[in-house]
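[agent] plan:
  1. take the single chain provided in the ticket
  2. run structure prediction with default settings
  3. attach structure tokens to the ticket
  4. add a short note for the reviewer (M.T.)
[agent] executing step 1
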Amino acid sequence: MEEDKVPQDDANVLDGKLKVLKYAVDKDGNYTKVKTVGWEPENIVLSQAWEDINEHVSEVRQKVLNGKLSPIAYHMAKQMLDVAMLAGYVGYSTFRVKWHLRPGVFKRLSGKQLDKYAQAFRISREQLLQVD
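[agent] step 2 finished; step 3 output follows
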């Protein structure tokens, strides 16, 4: 795509607050970086993806509030992490992280363990215990 033909649709999911870096060909035929707010099909797909993510976070939040999952599950969903990724961040096995997703087990975690999770999510221990 040529540099001057990179789409700049105003009606994007991020309301023009964020521009995405794309590569295009300049007048000399060289690749160059061009910032764009996107184009309609891309923005529709992004909007739908964020709707799905927000719906998933809401479902997980409700499970935490109903006592079926620990707050770790909510923060994982909110930050789009899976068990394996979180296990890598906190230095636990995936089995152990899955075990900590149980509300009863979560209630018995030590302060040090809670701090590990809080640090992985980049939040305070108090925020870890909440599902806002």
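[agent] step 4 note for reviewer: The longest helix spans residues 40-65.
[agent] ticket updated
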